[in-house]
């Protein structure tokens, strides 16, 4: 009887021993996204978090038999939260840069895009590209984005906003000469948004070329391998391309 009692006690203690030793099995992986970048991630008219990456992340998890979930996190804290371990990854239209690669490991790229200049349609006759902006022109951008960094190469007054939608509104109110953001985000404002279609114009072609990927903590090869494995499965079976087509991503 004592023998069976000892076995039962050991079985009860196993979960606590595992937790104490740091080997407790992970039940889900959390990915942060800043829901201000349609069609990648945004809040729809019903208040739901949605978009290309919001759907892609759980699909990657399912492909490798894991639970991947997405949470809405402000952009200005998103990378600090990743470093501090508040979540496992970032899926938020993140461009791969040499600076970011110093602290973040990136997945296989999920898209290629560039930065473009959006201007009021009334200025389209005089501004055909970002090179045509006069010195000191006021240009809005979302703070801390690659568009923000790219603008530093031009003689303009950079005005930074918490999200690109605020910059667009400020431009329509006459306070900016233009706004810079990802080409896909620009197409959502200009081509798909009926409220802006006649008021805004994309000036010329993208003036940068960027690869977008999912980021994880530096050195987290286990999670990175899972993401890349899941992406490859989705690319091979056609689900990745189907999802891109659904969200109008070329």
Describe this structure in words.
- The protein is of the alpha/beta class and 250 residues long.
- It folds into two domains: 21-112 and 210-246, Periplasmic binding protein-like II (D-Maltodextrin-Binding Protein, domain 2), CATH 3.40.190.10; 115-203, D-Maltodextrin-Binding Protein, domain 2, CATH 3.40.190.10.
- It is 38% helix and 25% strand.
- The chain has helices at 2-20, 52-63, 75-83, 98-101, 146-151, 164-172, 183-192, 221-237, 239-246; strands at residues 29-33, 36-37, 41-43, 49-50, 68-72, 89-95, 104-106, 111-113, 115-120, 138-142, 157-161, 178-182, 200-203, 210-217.
The global form is: globular
Oligomer: single chain
CATH hierarchy: architecture of the largest domain: 3-Layer(aba) Sandwich
Estimate the mean pLDDT confidence: 89
Helix share bin: 25-40%
Rg, Cα atoms, Å: 22 Å
Q: Report low-confidence residues grouped into runs of 5 or more.
A: 1-22
User: Biggest sheet, in brief?
Assistant: 6 strands, mixed
Structurally, the number of domains stands at 2
Count every beta strand, where a strand is a DSSP E run of 2 or more residues: 14
The CATH superfamily of the largest domain appears as Periplasmic binding protein-like II
Number of helices: 9
CATH fold name of the largest domain? D-Maltodextrin-Binding Protein, domain 2
The CATH class of the largest domain, by name, is Alpha Beta
Distance between the amino and carboxyl termini: 68 Å
Topology order in helix (H) and strand (E) letters? HEEEEHEHEHEEEEHEHEHEEHH
The share of residues in extended strands comes to 25-35%
């Amino acid at each position: 009887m004592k023998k069976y009692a000892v076995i039962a006690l050991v079985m009860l203690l196993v979960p606590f021993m595992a937790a104490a030793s740091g080997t407790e099995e992970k039940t889900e992986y959390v990915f942060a996204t800043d829901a201000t970048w349609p069609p990648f991630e945004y809040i729809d008219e019903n208040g739901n978090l949605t978009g290309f990456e919001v759907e892609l992340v759980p699909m990657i998890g399912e492909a490798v038999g894991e639970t991947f979930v997405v949470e809405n996190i402000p952009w200005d804290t998103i990378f600090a939260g990743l470093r501090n371990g508040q979540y496992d990854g970032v899926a938020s239209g993140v461009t791969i840069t040499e600076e970011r690669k110093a602290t973040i490991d990136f997945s296989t790229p999920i898209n290629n895009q560039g930065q473009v200049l959006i201007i009021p349609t009334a200025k389209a006759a005089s501004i055909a590209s970002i090179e045509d902006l006069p010195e000191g022109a006021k240009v809005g951008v979302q703070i801390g984005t690659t568009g923000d960094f790219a603008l530093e190469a031009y003689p303009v007054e950079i005005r930074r906003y918490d999200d690109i939608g605020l910059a667009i509104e400020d431009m329509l109110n006459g306070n900016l000469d233009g706004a810079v953001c990802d080409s896909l985000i620009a197409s959502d404002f200009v081509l798909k948004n009926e409220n802006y279609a006649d008021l805004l114009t994309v000036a010329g072609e993208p003036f940068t070329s960027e690869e977008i990927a999912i980021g994880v903590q530096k050195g987290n090869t286990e999670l990175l391998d899972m993401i890349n494995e899941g992406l490859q499965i989705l690319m091979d079976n056609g689900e990745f391309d189907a999802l891109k087509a659904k969200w109008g991503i070329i």
